[in-house]
Amino acid sequence: MTLVEAVVVIAVLAVFVAMLLPAIQHNHRYPASRINCVNSLKEIGLAYRVWAGDNNDKFPMEISVTNGGTMELAATGNVVATFQIMSNELSTPNLLYCTSDKDRTCATNFTTDFSAKHISYFVGLDTANTNQQIFLSGDDNVAIEGVRAKSGLLGVSTNANTAWTLERHISYKKHFWTPIHGMGNIGLVEGSVQQDTSIELQRAFQQTGLATNRLAIP
Length: 218
Prior knowledge:
Shape: elongated
Largest sheet: 7 strands, antiparallel
Radius of gyration: 21 Å
Oligomer: single chain
């Protein structure tokens, strides 16, 4: 091999490494965020169950405001009231903020410094249904028919085209040459947390058995 050939081989390898390195860095950047969001949703799910244990096995969204719940408020899309009423069970507002959420910030308390801008997760409003696959909570970067869900009450038809938006929360690449796919987390009434792709999100909505799934988006 001549000197020129050796230089050409080295140059080609350098270009290949330069192409591969960003993808490697990308794939190593997301696991921490992924784990953070999943753990937070598990803790939120536990807080729900502890609260329900003290309230006849009902979640705040199932109990009227006059009886100490948030039913009427949650039905308008108010997520703040539901998480505030569980502040003792949650113990810290840090759990409500996903570290990969570019649109939110972390609150310091549940009172003076607490609003929807400190919450990264939606509240499921159909928890009175007996199906354990009902949504309890999850990442709020949901898109319906290609339009990102706005703050407030969201009704999602089973037949609607649902997906995760890509501008925040979890993204991943199977291989460095493939496009980025949306991915997000869902906490179910039965206690588990699912990491779903957009295709799996669509299937999860269908598995609830509801014609319309109601979500309160922060």
